[in-house]
Every structure is written in C-alpha cells, then in structure tokens.
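Subgroup meeting minutes
Present: P.N., E.W., G.H.
Scribe: E.W.

1. P.N. recapped why we're keeping a running log of single-chain structure predictions: easier to compare across weeks, and new members can see raw inputs and outputs side by side.
2. G.H. added today's entry (268 aa).
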Amino acid sequence: MVTYSRGMDDEVFRALADPSRRTLLDRLFERDGQTLGDLETALPGMTRFGVMKHLRVLEAANLVTSRKVGRERHHYLNPVPIRQLHDRWLDRYRIRAADLLDDLRITLEALPMTMPDTAATAVEAPRHVFATFIRATPESIWRALTESEFTTRYWYGSTIHSDWAVGSSYELRTANDQPAISGDVIEADPPRRLVVSYASPWAAKPGEAPSKVTFEIEPSGPGVQKLTLVHETEPGSTTRIAEVAAGWPFILAGLKTLLETGEPLSAA
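Output recorded in log:
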C-alpha cells in the first residue's frame, strides 16, 4: 500500500487556499519561467515584498521551483505535488481516462503557453523545470535514474543501458524492447548531478538537434533529498519537448513512490 505525507498535502492545500497565490500559479501556467518583476504585474495592488512572500509559500509547498539565470531568478510551476494528489484519489482506470484528455489538452495548448519571452532577458531560461522531495539516500536516487532494476518499475517497464561515463551513449528501451530515448552523457557526478542529451522519435523533427536533460540531487533536511529535473533546448530549436515534458511529473512521482515505499505508483 502506498503511503502519503499528510504534512506535505496540508502545505499544498494551504498554499492553494489563497486567491493571490492561485493567481501566481495561473500566470506561471500561462508562461513558465517568469521573474519576480514579471509576476508583480499579476498582482498590481500588492507590494514587491508581498509577492515575494507568496512565492516563498508556494516554493515551501513545492508548487513553484526557481532557478537563477544570469542575474535574475526565474520561477516555474511544479506540477509534481498536484500529480501526487491526483494519483492519491483517482484509481488507475480513472487516471488513464483523465490522461487521455490531458494529453489532448497538452497537445493543443502546451506549445503556445510555453513559448519563452526572449526579450525579457539576454540569457534564455530553461523551459521546463520540475522538482520533488524524496526520503531516500542520494545513492539510491542515482541508482533509480541509471539502473534497469528500478526503471522497469516506475518508467512503464523500460530498461536503461549505459556505463554512465562522460562521452558514453545511453538508451532507454520500452517494455517490448523498442528504442524510446537515446543520447550521450554530458556530465556525470554521482550521486549528485547527471546531464544527458535527449532524443526520441516523438520529441523532435528528423535531423533536429537533441534537447538536454539535467538531474540534480541535493540534500534537503535529514534523510531527504531534492531531485530537480530541467529539460531544455538550444535557443532557436523547435524541438517539441512540451508534450514530452508533460510526462515528467508522473515519472518523478513514480520514482519517489518506489524509493519511499518499495512499491510502484500504480499497476502497469
């Protein structure tokens, strides 16, 4: 049986209870990666300090994550906690039906909503940033990312193959042994940081440059690690990662559940 953290659920619901915080989440849903200055325009009657306080509450609930890009900090809507609440109260049959509708919505809406505002900053910010907190050792999280013993249990039965040395190739293969994701290892600093190129049949047009995925594992309290995933493309690339990135929250939720409970998130 899967267990859930009531304390984290309480923080999520408390954060969502305030209409100003919901407005900030709505603004990030419209366009991810906004700065504090951008988000101030969503609450014109509030001081800069007030907006900062609301963002801190959202970050504490893991509904928003942020990254420093150049001299500015960019904020991202983090759907992982929402995904975990969704999976808690919907059985796997309703999940699959809802996912079909959500996939259609993502296909129709995600690309226009996630177009970056290149005029906002000279340094282009990542388009997709997700984070989750896992009660596990950094070594076990690293193994979960890099060993088939784990990926088969949370990544739709897929196996992963590489020696994870910098410059080596890697490949994720589906349960029926079809190639799904491939690329090269750009950085590997176990058990804290892994950067890989990312190519798949559905993520890019033929001949287009691969995108890049970064996994960062950092301590966040006694026995707890924060796992951050950044999926980004080169400036000017038309790689269709918006649809692909929509699946990352489920992957991260499955990894977290497996490591914390020893059981998969849901039946295959």
